Amino acid sequence: MPGDLDDDGQLDVADALRLIVVLLGPEITTPPASQPQLGDFLTTDLDVDADVDLADFARFQRGFTGGP
Hints:
Shape: globular
Mean pLDDT: 87
Oligomer: single chain
Largest sheet: none
């Protein structure tokens, strides 16, 4: 499931926290220095446009299931 960063089958708070760390804005195509692993950056790019911005957050939000 796109955005399910911990592979638990749901889009929940744990996934949201990981998305927020790499939410940098449009046209910023490299992960932040505090996030040296490219994995979360690439998997949270839900619209596959090479950045993590509010468009990706909106897609995440539509699938958000809640929970811990």
